[in-house]
Amino acid sequence: MATIYKKVWCEYFEKIIFGKKKLELRLADFEINEGDTLVLEEWDKDKKEYTGRKIEVVATYILKTKGQTFGRRRKWKNMDFKLSNLNQKKNNL
């Protein structure tokens, strides 16, 4: 199982902390698999710096869109997204 570090904007980080946001949609520019740990680090997009807060979550489901046949294929041809279901780890940072 891998540990992956990713930035998360403040408004989304708050929703993750309080359990409201349990899905993560990102461009598929990194490898992630079920069971991997994501360390989500809060990023202030205005100040362009980390706030110091972070949370560890586990990817429990990964939906990869590359190769899927839904929608208008021409629009999706050059794009790849991953949708990850996240659960908080019991021993958070």
Condensed summary:
This protein has 93 residues and is mainly beta. It contains two helices and five strands; from the N terminus they run E-H-E-E-E-H-E.
Q: Total number of helical segments?
A: 2
Structural class: mainly beta
Gross morphology: globular
Portion in strands? over 45%
Low-pLDDT stretches are none
Name the assembly state. Answer: single chain
Q: How many runs of DSSP E, i.e. beta strands?
A: 5
Radius of gyration in whole Å, from Cα?
A: 14 Å
Largest sheet: 5 strands, mixed
Q: What is the succession of H and E elements?
A: EHEEEHE
Mean model confidence by pLDDT: 82
Side by side, the strands of the main sheet go: 1-3-4-5-2
| CA distance, first residue to last residue | 18 Å
Helix content: 10-25%
